[in-house]
Amino acid sequence: MLKIGIVGLPNVGKSTLFKALTNVAVDIQNYPFTTIDPNVGVVRVPDERVDALALMSNSKKKIYTTIEFIDIAGLVKGAAQGEGLGNKFLANIREVDAIAHVVRVFEDKNITHVHNKIDPINDIEIIQTELELADLQTKESRAKKKDHRDLPELDLLADKKVIFVLNCSESQLANNWTPSFVKTSEGKPDDNLLKAIAGRDYVVLSTPLELILSESTQDEKKEYLTTFGIKESGLDKLIKQSYKTLDLLTFLTTGEDETRAWTAHIGDPIPRAARAIHTDFEKLFIRAEVINWKMLLESGSWVEARSKGLLKTVGRDYIIQEGDVVEIKI
């Protein structure tokens, strides 16, 4: 399962984001350190293709892909040396596939900032420095061990892919806030935040609004989105961005028993992608029938698609594509 670690300084909106993502009751307080063990939640990835194909196939079950989000407790400057909650939490980051780094850009006098000022660039640098310091300690520890050259390659924290979650206020969101809106103390445009995240993936959202949306009905959610002039929730954007950042895609299977979404890496040949369905499929794979999900829906059924000659029979060299519906032959 895909794992995303949510990190950031205290009081930037991490736990609110986690609660909105998972609708799990976590401790949200105006204190720097509210947890010792990371909160873990599994989030269903919304996918209209699963719904549509399940309806077409009259499937008994619908199974979506999932992402495991880990709310890693607030880091502070010096965490790698044991400050705050210490480097125990940096160790938790090693378990994840990517990092969602929540950065505070909103002003709120009722929510204290650990450094008593809103400075997203400094916040980014602090977390990045702590990750690099933790890596340095890991390298030094490795170098002291005998036969360290024969040990597995290090999984360095600073090398993990990062998605910056720029947490703004609801009013900023309503005004289509972007990183280019940041101003200097003299009120002039400040492009330092853009430089700090240059070449990195990011999403802009407001965690208070996301929490409201996560607790709303579908009709209420649509009304809120219309009010704020946005097409989709920040959570949906984060989930989609997670797939893009990690070069992942979704393929599907459908039938009377179930319609299901599966995750593969972009560029995977179909036998490797089929491991997600069953580990034996990669070795035993002979061929597969493949069709794009939209084409299958337009056909009305797998049988109709076959009769129209729309199903492709592919071998081991076929590269799985986003939205493929497959039937594996072994």
From TrEMBL:
<dbReference type="Pfam" id="PF06071">
    <property type="entry name" value="YchF-GTPase_C"/>
</dbReference>
<feature type="domain" description="OBG-type G">
    <location>
        <begin position="2"/>
        <end position="247"/>
    </location>
</feature>
<keyword id="KW-0067">ATP-binding</keyword>
<keyword id="KW-0479">Metal-binding</keyword>
<dbReference type="GO" id="GO:0005524">
    <property type="term" value="F:ATP binding"/>
</dbReference>
<dbReference type="InterPro" id="IPR031167">
    <property type="entry name" value="G_OBG"/>
</dbReference>
<dbReference type="Pfam" id="PF01926">
    <property type="entry name" value="MMR_HSR1"/>
</dbReference>
<dbReference type="GO" id="GO:0005737">
    <property type="term" value="C:cytoplasm"/>
</dbReference>
<dbReference type="InterPro" id="IPR012676">
    <property type="entry name" value="TGS-like"/>
</dbReference>
<keyword id="KW-0547">Nucleotide-binding</keyword>
<dbReference type="InterPro" id="IPR012675">
    <property type="entry name" value="Beta-grasp_dom_sf"/>
</dbReference>
<dbReference type="InterPro" id="IPR041706">
    <property type="entry name" value="YchF_N"/>
</dbReference>
<dbReference type="InterPro" id="IPR006073">
    <property type="entry name" value="GTP-bd"/>
</dbReference>
<dbReference type="InterPro" id="IPR004396">
    <property type="entry name" value="ATPase_YchF/OLA1"/>
</dbReference>
<dbReference type="GO" id="GO:0046872">
    <property type="term" value="F:metal ion binding"/>
</dbReference>
<protein>
    <recommendedName>
        <fullName>OBG-type G domain-containing protein</fullName>
    </recommendedName>
</protein>
<dbReference type="GO" id="GO:0016887">
    <property type="term" value="F:ATP hydrolysis activity"/>
</dbReference>
<dbReference type="InterPro" id="IPR013029">
    <property type="entry name" value="YchF_C"/>
</dbReference>
<keyword id="KW-0460">Magnesium</keyword>
<dbReference type="GO" id="GO:0005525">
    <property type="term" value="F:GTP binding"/>
</dbReference>
<dbReference type="InterPro" id="IPR027417">
    <property type="entry name" value="P-loop_NTPase"/>
</dbReference>
